Batch of 4 targets.
Target 1
Amino acid sequence: MQSYEHLRGSDEARCALEDLVRVGRRSVAAYRATERRARDHRVRTVLAQLRRDHQRHVRELAAILSAIGGEGVAWDGGVAPLVAVGKEPAASRVAGSAAPAVLEALERAESELRDAYAAHVERGYPEPLGAALARHLREEEAHLEWLEESRWWRDAAAPGTEERARGGGNA
């Protein structure tokens, strides 16, 4: 691991890392919830990869936080865990994918995380922290781009999709 000794005692760096770990954990929870509701194995595969990216980011940031003298970050009880623990009724499943509320939570979590990285990158932290945050921001932008450009979840949430998937209705 690279040296972060020069950031030891920096309250600004510690607070930034704690913030990113919290927001990253909420994003992981949102991906888990969406994976559980996705019926298409190809979609679940992509969602699992994106979730693993978030988990990797959280591990990296937690390690940096520890290296600069920070302590572990407790779960903050954000919105995503409520979705993640299955509060959504089973009837809310949509053919081929996940319920609209879960998908909206996923997109919100991804946007929140991207915005948090962007704000911290803009602060211009010294290297190697600045480079790590910039790399994570690029990955978050790619995740959000995939969500915004991907049709799987919009199509699955469209009215009448379930009936068409069963062979009924006009396609």
Target 2
Amino acid sequence: MTAERFRFGLIIFIFLHMTWLLRYWIDSYRTSKKPLLQTNFIDEASVRHKINFLTTDNFGLLNKHAVSITNVVNLAGGIPIQHFLDGYLHCYSVNEDVYKAEMQYNLGTHPQSGLELYGQVKRTIDFKRMQIINDEVQLQKKGTGFATNLFLNQVNEARQRGFLKIVTHAAGGEDYPNDYWDGYKVWAKYGYQMGAVHQNKYTGWRYIRKQKSETLNKLYWGREDYKLWEDEGFSWDGSFDLTKKSDSIMYLKWYLAAKGINVPLNPIGNP
């Protein structure tokens, strides 16, 4: 009787194990068939003639830090070459260590809505502190993957060049009534983490609403009640830690896996 039970248990174990393997293989196959997220890195041959480049470096920043204007643009997120029609790029050095980048893109007509799509980004790149300030991202139509593309390319270029963090203001929420900014509910899922001031404010927010998640990132991934944050959240200042094995990198990898986005992250180090 004991031997029969053992054989029966073994059969059940093998069956469950094979079922798990089959599901894993199917999921892996589906993921492999998903196209790579379109990269934004500049393609000199196909893009440069379509964009109005206005670049100045009165302080010799490029020579001092051994970077090209292409590196600067990729640190700002790059150019969405897959759907790019035309646009402008304005880059200029503020001093010998800080570069400003302002870019606007015409991405054509959205197939479903018929809207003309455009995007605009503004960045401050500090080669002394090794940090990037994402001053602004504007999208006429959300859900196009535009912001994800920008961020992934920025992270990869920044990590490759040894940058330490990316800083942003996650606008929107109760601080921006009747406004379209939605960074307050978006950037945490990519791995941005609140600074100390707004983390304290969040702690008070969650206590009042009886939420257990200690950070906004945990609230998002725990799915405790993220809808409550979307409805009653506030704007916040935060940063993305580019260093190895940071929580920011961990959350970004979770997000990419959850969305089936097959884009590897560059290792840290100078090119």
Target 3
Amino acid sequence: MGLMDKMAKSMISKMSQEQREEMMLNMMPDMLDGINIVDMMSKMMPDMAKSITLLDLIRIIRQGIPQLLDTFKKLKDQMPAAMEKAPLMMEMMIEIMPEIMSKMMPIMFEHMDLDKMAEKKDVMMRKMLEKEPLDQLVPQMQSIMIPGCLRNILPKISVEKRQMFISEMQGIFNGEFGEPN
């Protein structure tokens, strides 16, 4: 740790959280000028994820949705460069997501009506499939992902529920699609 690091640490430790947040917001644009965010985040993510709590995630999600939509618009332009980093990001997600989800999902599902949630998912899927290019991409992606999901999930389902599930799936595959939810 250099002299500047020691001085900065000493100064920062004497500041309130509000002062530190204000300083970060004021300095961040200058500090990030010329920095490749994708590279930086891929290096920082493993250490950052270890310190994130469930309450942090809920707060971030609640406050960040408007910013997230704006960010998606900006990321669209940066997507080609980001895709070069996709394999690294996927490897990190394989390590991070099970840990995060194992803490978050039980709390989320504790107060959720899973049947209603599935119904909402079906409505969302139908609306997504009305849009191009999702009408092609989603079926392609799901046809690749669903078999692997089933191989992992079916052994965890009771025999009775598995038989009901298989019967429903056979009906779908035999053309008994029913009405979309």
Target 4
Amino acid sequence: MSKLIDSMWFNTDQGHFGIILAEDETTGELKLYAGVVAGFDQQADERAILSWGHKVNIGMLAGLLARTGIPKERYQWTMNCVLFGAELFKQLSQGQLKKEDAIVKIKSLSSALTDEDPPYLLQRIQDLVER
């Protein structure tokens, strides 16, 4: 069984496509799933992709991103943030991390973050935990 962590959506005139980041509850491994959905109910669409979606090969996705010409540092930082958020999500949902400690971890990401950024980011992660 996989637990939803986050989702990303693409809407076109031909339909709706989603990519789901999930954690395998047995192994703790992070996985990406993708699929075409109805687009009327985000939670139903997320469940459908988790149940029937195609598993995305993360290595192949990284290779595809590399071919765009975008410097690896630019997309690698984004991917690392997703994985960082997933780990915070896991620790918060399992009661292994307190809110205050999560804010400290988020603040350590970048000196460019304002004092308002970490609580906002933590709230976004906690919204996912409560799903």
